[in-house]
């Protein structure tokens, strides 16, 4: 089938996809299951932290005024009248010359206004009573952790759209989120196309290769925060392909196909979009790899027609599908993080299209470097395993040299609010 | 209880822990469940990639010698005798003046030695036969992807100890790993101590706070690649604490306790180590936060006595427990990744101990910066949620200024082979 293909720019493609962005629904899940999920609401302090004035260490709660005259040459003795542990409350109120032994985290006893750590005191016993000896004066407020000094009720501590990680989880626990409001995961369907594809458990045959894209893409989907639903391989017959795609679309939020979007005789996807009556957003992007990447929209749902070449498939997902997923999850940084760094190899040959070069980032003396990994051909699968970044080489008439400053998209970075403008 | 505490250096503490490193067993799991697991064996190519000479695009497989005379002014016609799709094999062998229509990925037909893409040809029909018109000469080898040009049988593509991610998974699929050899996850038990601790679902009470450490640390354990087993809160009674610890130790590979290692009256852990007959590796580290961090060994198993202060607990885990877990999993980079960067705030006050300051890393114009996050006190929980790094400020007599170059440990980095020497 012959179709007119007019390449659009990468950022135009991303923008076209995000016109069909959706805001995922909320669901409440147990805190123990919330790791890596995206918060659908900000975490707000429902109480002050600390919730009360407290001792940050093990020592004695004293009345500072009792120590005014204390010095090396004039040690004073104060009577220990009670011990209060963390979680306990003092029952007595010290009067002049009295102190309360207090453990880390315990609430400041009424009538006391300073903490003195164990190490600055000496304990003595006399007449069945316990005293401490103090050899210096302490000011009111010494070593107290004051109520709300860390956070006040109502403060927003973590924004909606953030992913739950250990530090976030500590706050969820602190503020009593036994159930956590998170974004539901979108369901992303995957169909592979290609008569040459064998499944992972099948022995190799002449002319055939194993299907690596489906495994790779389901990993990418899960890493991006969605649920992958793998439908298998589309058969090599148009009507059955059409039925399979139409039926899968009813069950998923987004459907990815790998392969079948090029100009080959068995590339059925363009015809399937047409028969569906889907709105083809674009069928060519001015980029390498992945120029044939196609996205169509049907009843508000997107069909991502990714290339069957492993590297092109990988890049197409990261640039186009991932931002859709992350937007659905409420992430404020749905795009790959873009940084600048130094190129570690020559790319003398210019290319009319922007190139995304699989690379490995290193940090040396505080600076970012990117080294291309392996063969830079779209069909190459091995280089993906050792990449953690894509070097972005703009299209045009110039080549690039080792030492040039280039844009680098981090595959494991914290994301970005901005769309790459290339 | 009074114990002698002699601080050791951070790297001495890490080295002491890793003297009890273990090498986890292998288990074979389905490829679909292998995301984020650690490979117990290298991925080796069991066949060449490509496994055969193939066409990297949609076009025609030709005999280059047939095109020697072709030019703009002297176009030649070649007969199309067969079409072969990816996964298929040509049945015919072209003779002089004949070509085979070929799709991306298909094996090079016998007798052909060059590929010409569709776009460089024109198809015509005559006498019921199909011909292509070619207006230039092509060299033997034009646009062929040769067997093994990407990888040869026996090449090691991914080392043992690497974590499975999308690119690695693509290779596992390519080489037929329907079952993947990964390291068994160690089981890390967690007991919290502290009478002041409420569980996440309990309402606040005077003098009490919610237990955030247990939730945080189980997240850290899972993130590090292990299985967390939370046992709950140790009760405030020595004999029952002792029984609980001794019994948990039988079920886990490592036991973490949070709190109870300081010098407070209810800090039972030192006495529990003593009663067990455990070998205390150290009970003080020259660092802030987390100086009271204690590690003991009992019958080859480690007991990590982390501080009850959230930040101290967090740092203690990342510096000491995580490398043990990652070593067990076979990671070659079990330590936090160390980079250099620019400090974005003043720390004028010197400290005798090395400090680990919760910070947020930014990358600006190819350089790394670290900005301290929130209050830098060990009891502070809120700053952890917004940190992705620990700035390392060496102990000594000097303070640090905005603009100083400092060491930075990345909490989400790719790890390091090296132990921090501070």
UniProtKB/TrEMBL annotation, chains A, B:
Q: Which reaction does it catalyse?
A: adenylyl-molybdopterin + molybdate = Mo-molybdopterin + AMP + H(+)
For whether the record's keyword set contains Transit peptide, the answer is: no
Do you know which SMART domains this protein is assigned to?
MoCF_biosynth (SM00852)
Q: What's any GO biological process attached to this entry?
A: Mo-molybdopterin cofactor biosynthetic process
Q: Which cofactor names does the annotation list?
A: Mg(2+)
GO MF term set: metal ion binding; molybdopterin molybdotransferase activity
- Pfam families found in the cross-reference section: MoCF_biosynth, MoeA_C, MoeA_N
List the SUPFAM superfamilies: MoeA C-terminal domain-like, MoeA N-terminal region -like, Molybdenum cofactor biosynthesis proteins
| Pathway(s) per entry | Cofactor biosynthesis; molybdopterin biosynthesis
Asked if Cytoplasm is a keyword of the record, the answer is no
User: Would you tell me the Gene Ontology cellular component terms?
Assistant: cytosol
Relate the protein's function as given in its record. Catalyzes the insertion of molybdate into adenylated molybdopterin with the concomitant release of AMP.
The entry sums up its family as follows: Belongs to the MoeA family.
Q: What is this protein called?
A: Molybdopterin molybdenumtransferase
Query: Which species is this UniProt entry from?
Result: Anaerobacillus isosaccharinicus
């Amino acid at each position: 089938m012959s179709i007119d293909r007019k390449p659009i720019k990468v950022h135009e493609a991303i923008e076209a996809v995000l016109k069909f962005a959706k805001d995922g629904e909320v669901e409440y899940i147990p805190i123990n299951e919330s790791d890596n999920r995206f918060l659908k609401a900000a975490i707000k302090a429902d109480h002050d932290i600390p919730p009360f004035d407290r001792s940050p260490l093990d020592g004695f709660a004293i009345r500072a005024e009792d120590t005014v005259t204390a010095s090396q040459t004039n040690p004073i003795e104060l009577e220990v009248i009670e011990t209060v542990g963390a979680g306990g409350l003092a029952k007595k109120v010290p009067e002049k010359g009295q102190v309360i032994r207090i453990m880390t985290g315990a609430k400041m006893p009424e009538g006391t206004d300073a903490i003195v750590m164990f190490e600055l005191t000496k304990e003595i016993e006399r007449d069945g009573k316990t005293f401490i000896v103090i050899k210096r004066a302490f000011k009111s407020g010494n070593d107290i952790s004051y109520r709300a000094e860390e956070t006040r009720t109502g403060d927003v501590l973590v924004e909606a759209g953030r992913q739950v990680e250990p530090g976030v989880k500590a706050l969820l626990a602190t503020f009593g989120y036994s159930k956590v409001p998170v974004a539901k995961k979108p369901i992303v369907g995957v169909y592979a196309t290609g008569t040459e594809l064998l499944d992972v458990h099948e022995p190799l045959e002449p002319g055939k290769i194993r299907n690596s894209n489906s495994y790779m893409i389901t990993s990418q989907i899960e890493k991006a925060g969605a649920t992958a639903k793998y439908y298998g391989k589309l058969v090599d017959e148009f009507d059955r392909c059409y039925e399979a795609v139409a039926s899968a679309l009813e069950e998923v939020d987004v459907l990815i196909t790998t392969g079948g979007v090029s100009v080959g005789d068995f590339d059925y996807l363009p015809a399937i979009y047409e028969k569906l009556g889907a709105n083809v957003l674009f069928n060519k992007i001015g980029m390498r790899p992945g120029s044939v990447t196609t996205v169509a929209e049907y009843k508000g749902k997107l069909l991502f027609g990714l290339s069957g070449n492993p590297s092109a498939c990988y890049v197409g997902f990261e640039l186009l599908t991932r931002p859709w997923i992350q937007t659905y999850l409420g992430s404020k940084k749905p795009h790959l993080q873009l940084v600048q760094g130094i190129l570690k190899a020559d790319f003398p040959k210019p290319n009319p299209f922007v190139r995304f070069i699989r690379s490995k980032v290193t940090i040396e003396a505080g600076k970012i470097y990117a080294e291309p990994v392996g063969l830079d051909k779209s069909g190459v699968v091995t280089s993906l395993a050792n990449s953690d970044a894509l070097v972005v080489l703009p299209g045009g008439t110039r080549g690039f040299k080792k030492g040039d400053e280039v844009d680098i998209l981090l595959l494991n970075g914290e994301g970005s609010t901005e769309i790459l403008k290339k």
